[in-house]
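Table S2 (continued). Query chain:
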Amino acid sequence: MSRLAIFFAEGFEEIEALAVVDICRRCGLAIDMVSITQDRSVRGSHGIEVKMDKIYSETDFAEYDMLILPGGGLGTQNLEAHEGLMAQIDAFYKAGKYIGAICAAPSVFGHRGILKGRRACSYPSFESHLEGAQVTAGPVEISDNVVTSRGMGTALDFGLAIAGIFCGEEKAEEIAKGIVYR
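Corresponding output:
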């Protein structure tokens, strides 16, 4: 079974992170919520505190098939400032393993040169950070092993796209129907 990790930093966008976790778990995917700090709970951009499955120092990256970055302005800044996580993002990308980001977080990929020549999307005010990308207004863009999405309003699309990659389109559609999405 595929295993995914989603990383939480203070100031993360709650819906963007938790919608992905919820959809992946509904599909039967193993997804770990990982704090990039030593704290077992992380406070989001709207003051919602979420208990984590793991902290970064406990994470064995060899277990994972995808790394996911939720947005939120402050959360994205904090994720990007974590050198260890950025090294893992680079390693996954270079190995052809999946990486994903939503809202402000695709800017991290732009800053790292990951989006050059790719279709990508982000929160509108962060589009200038998608360096080298063909920027779209689509809800989700999948370009080889890189998945990007625009924001809270596209969080379900993002989660369902990830589910489609790892569980198949039929299962993703089943989940969408079950949550009365489509």
